[in-house]
Structure formats: structure tokens, C-alpha cells
Write a structure and sequence with these properties.
By secondary structure, the chain is an alpha/beta fold. It has one domain: 3-Layer(aba) Sandwich (Rossmann fold), CATH 3.40.50.150. Helices cover 31% and strands 15% of the residues. It has ten helices and eight strands. Helix 5 links the parallel strand 3 and strand 4.
Length: 258
């Protein structure tokens, strides 16, 4: 059974605390949204699990969002449907109710991954999409040289992609999701060529993995990055990324069709 925090958050991060400005930094990136839209195919009714503030919800389809965090539900813009207060592990819908289902940057928050995926499969007669990160690739990002505890936390939390494919069953594929240089969605790798953005405490707070290290440790990580930016050391190591049009990091889309 999912254990829920004071604001309804059901995962290991408390979005009542860290999610207050989430919508300001975690805007949908159009290139990623387009990839998700293609994977949804001709589905008209779409379930969005762990919908948060509404990033990547298609506006040209009938979307039913589910979000357990009151803080996140309150940040949803007026043009999107109100989110239902529920958790992935216990979806209040009949079998095969939706044409498709999706979840983005959410599965690592669930109390029971397998139960949540099985529930998504149960209520969906078409494709199930999971936007997540490959835990085997997370720590190859340059940030690991500055904030190893943050990326270690991310790598521990993200589930193995092949495991999710096995639980969802059917015919599935893993799609690489390139990250554009000016990515609007502020997860850690989105700043691959804009390292100064990670000096902003609010930007870091919008990446939940930063909440798994102490304030003192985070301050030490940031001070290290700030020193290397000021001295030019970061640019000597990674400066080519400032002009790289896209980055192939750990971001992946699992598409499971029955």
C-alpha cells in the first residue's frame, strides 16, 4: 500500500516542500512532447499518471490526470483538466478504460513500481508510455564530478528499463530521447551546456535528487562547480557542450504495446 505524506505525495520525495516552484522550472520541452505525441499514435483518451503540474499532457486529446500531491495539483494551469487525487498503485478506473496511458518522470516516486505499472496496463487497452532515465547511464553525466551524491541518488531511484518492459509485457521498445541545448524542462541533464543554471537554488530544488543530500553537502557541491566555472576549469573539460545542439544522456521513453 502506498504511504502518503502530508500533502499526498506517495513517493520518497516530499513535493509539499520541494515542489512549490516546480512548474516554473519544469516546463514541457516541445521536442520531447512531440516524441511522446508520436508514441501515443491515434489514441484519443489518455491517462496521465503522476501528472504533476501537467508537463507533457497533450492538449489535443482527452486527458485524465492522476496526481497524489496537493502541492503539484495546485500548480496545474487553468487550461488543463483538474487532476484526480489517486496513486499509481490503485487507479480508480475499470479495465481497458483508456486508449493509452503515460507517465513522465514519475515511476521513481512510486511506492510499488510493479503494482503501478500493472495498474496502468490494466486500465489501458493501447500503448503505455514511461518517460524515465536509464540508471546505468545517469552517472556518466559531467555533474557526477561535482555532485556525486545527487547522481548516485538518481541512479538508485530510477528502475531498470528492461524490468519495466517485462512488467508491462506485450511488444515494447526503448526510445532514446535527445535533450536539446535550450531544453525548457529543468532536470539535471537539461543543463548539460548551461552549467550556471545549477547555481540557482530554485533550479536545483526542481530536481528531486538534490533533496537526498544534506544542505551542507549540496552547498559544497555548488561551491565546487562555481569555482570551476569562475576559473575556466569547467569549460576546459566540457566547454564543447555549450554549443552542442543536443545531448544523448540517460533520458529514455519506454513504449509498451499490448
Amino acid at each position: 500500500m502506498a504511504v502518503r505524506k502530508a500533502d499526498g505525495s506517495a513517493g520518497d520525495a516530499d513535493y509539499g516542500t520541494i515542489g512549490r516552484d516546480y512548474a516554473s522550472f519544469r516546463q514541457p520541452e516541445p521536442a520531447i512532447a512531440a516524441l511522446i505525441s508520436r508514441a501515443l499514435g491515434d489514441a484519443r483518451s489518455v491517462l496521465n499518471v503522476g501528472a504533476g503540474a501537467g508537463s507533457y499532457e497533450p492538449v489535443d486529446r482527452e486527458v485524465t490526470p492522476v496526481e497524489p500531491s496537493a502541492s503539484m495539483r495546485a500548480q496545474r494551469p487553468a487550461h488543463l483538466a483538474n487532476a484526480i487525487d489517486a496513486v499509481a498503485e490503485s487507479l480508480p478506473f475499470p479495465d481497458g478504460h483508456f486508449d493509452a496511458a503515460m507517465t513522465t518522470f514519475s515511476v521513481h516516486q512510486w511506492s510499488s513500481l510493479d503494482d503501478g505499472l500493472r495498474e496502468m496496463r490494466r486500465v489501458t487497452h493501447g500503448p503505455v508510455l514511461v518517460l524515465s532515465c536509464d540508471p546505468d547511464l545517469v552517472q556518466r553525466f559531467w555533474l557526477n564530478g561535482y555532485a556525486p551524491g545527487v547522481l548516485a541518488a538518481e541512479a538508485r531511484r530510477y528502475p531498470a528499463l528492461d524490468h519495466m518492459r517485462a512488467v508491462l509485457g506485450g511488444n515494447s521498445e526503448i526510445v532514446t530521447v535527445p535533450i536539446p541545448l535550450m531544453c525548457r524542462d529543468g532536470f539535471n541533464e537539461a543543463y548539460y551546456g548551461r552549467p550556471e543554471r545549477l547555481l540557482d537554488p530554485a533550479a536545483r530544488l526542481a530536481c528531486s535528487a538534490w533533496s537526498f543530500v544534506s544542505a551542507q553537502t549540496a552547498a559544497e557541491y555548488v561551491a565546487h562547480l562555481e569555482r570551476d566555472l569562475a576559473s575556466g576549469a569547467w569549460d576546459r573539460k566540457h566547454g564543447d557542450l555549450r554549443s552542442a545542439p543536443e545531448y544523448d544522456g540517460s533520458l529514455r521513453l519506454v513504449v509498451a504495446r499490448p
